[in-house]
Design goal:
Length: 119
Amino acid sequence: MRLPNGDRAQLGDKLERYCLNPNHRKGKDKAALFRDRLEVTLDNKGVFETALLAAALDNKAVVRSRDQYGYHYNIRFLMQTDVGEAWVLSCWIIRHGEDFPRLTNAYPVRSQEVQDDNP
């Protein structure tokens, strides 16, 4: 299945505040992975934003769970830059009462971790 209304996916400030923030207590490790594997940082976050929005529109989504906040989805995709490539897990939520997905998290994963979701 595709992410419902993936064409209206919103990234919010999750990349700046967390995923690519080298000063965030927990996010700094993800930021280091994105920098080391893909050379993606806050300075060139647009390339990551483009990849996330394309994945939200085109890639297979898996329903991870449903809770009091809404439906949670995972999308795994291969991201390529001039420096290299890495599998990325992007996590999304469609909140109850809303009809568009919001990014909740994103991080690089090993290729072995994606085999079950992406044939």
